[in-house]
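Narrative summary of target 7.
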Amino acid sequence: MKKTKRFISLALILCTIACMFLPVAVFNENAAGALDADIKTQQDKVDRAQAKLDRDTKSGKDADALAKDQAKVDKEQEKLDALIAEQAAASSQASGGIHYSLLPGKLPQELELDMQVINAYKLYEANFNGYHAMIWVIFALLALTFILLLIPGDRIVSKCFTFAAFTNLAAIILICYTLLRLGAFPIKAPYSNAAISPVISALLIFLPIVVLSINLTSVFNSKRSMIYLLCVFLCFLSIVPFWIMIVNSTRSSQQIQQGVSLLPSKYFLYNWQVLQSKNFDLLTGFRNSAIIAFGSTVLSVYFSALTAYGLTVYNFKGRKFAIAVVMAIIMIPGQVTATGFYIFMYQLGWVNSYLPLIIPSIAAASTVFFFMQYLQANFQVALVEAARIDGAGEFYAYNKIIMPIMVPAMATMGIMAVIGSWNNYLTPLMLLTNPNMKTLPMMVKELRGDIYRTEFGSIYLGLTMTALPLIIVYFAFSKYIIAGIAVGGVKE
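Modeled conformation, tokenized:
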């Protein structure tokens, strides 16, 4: 990193630390607002006393009873007037409130958390210790960033710059979290919740971001490391839901309802016994889902690739219209045609059969469109012309020359087709009523049919068993997807 950019970065880090000593929030005094609840309660008492007086007047009670009622109304009204006067006086005498800065970090002792809000939403701790520790962690990260930028001296390249980028990024994330947490603390009256200063908070976030951008644009290693970090973070986000599903399959329903856990428990065998007691035939579900998923996938991938090949290679009359029809079919939701599809299958006598779940997959418009785009990017018509000159037939050229080129695309769409067909719930539910033909998604859905007690552990175990084949299929064909990306990125 050049000296000028490093000097700017150091100055901005110092400015960020200095902003932490400036008032970033104000807790306005709200003694008048603290009396609102008391005034409302007293107003209800006045209304009830007045309503009783009106009822007694209509019922014709004696004068003594009405006098007592009137005296009670007057007494409650006097209390209400006193509260309103006290509120007016508090409003006129209200000060500017309490100003607060992140450093030294301690909130003023006058502030108290509203425990009613905390108990109602269960979102906050009853003390500020964690929040205070977070502020000093931010200060330490910023100080460490400053030191790491100083260590290399006159060297342009150093690993310290990369480490400084990571500490700076962590400080930015924690600053954003701290400001959001500060604004969300439920403060008990007579003070109101924190009013965050937009200028100071913007500086606290913007200045470190500028430092980070200078680092990333000046040091190649920092940029590459950030990209790796982002990829690892996205990978973590994609894996965590599956891991939680697998972990929940080993937990009891009570543990699942208590919260999320990343550590397995000891109720796997119990959940498996619950599945068995609810007639969850795993092998039958696997068999039925596999017949439908893999049968429809083979037909969809092969004939969609053949259709895309024909629309790409042959220049015939009506070709553009055929492509437009394919595009139009993609835009029609499957739910719109579900009723007509069921009636048609019923008239053909294909209810309680695998055929309507497999045969229609031949006409997969979205798969055809994907293959067309792939062929236009990675296919040369000269290959087919050379095969014709050598005496090869059209189907021979397609099966021996074109299909090997399309293997990455076919593997990609094969995975998508297997996932879509395996997870399909609505169409099998319409067409299959025979218990021996139910798919795994249908069986898992029936696990929630117990109206007395829902065994969430067994449901997660069923979901895990349902997703396991999909994970295996993905890892089996993922190398073809990577190969397809590599082929598409090479220019001839």
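The CA atoms of residues 295 and 349 lie 20 Å apart.
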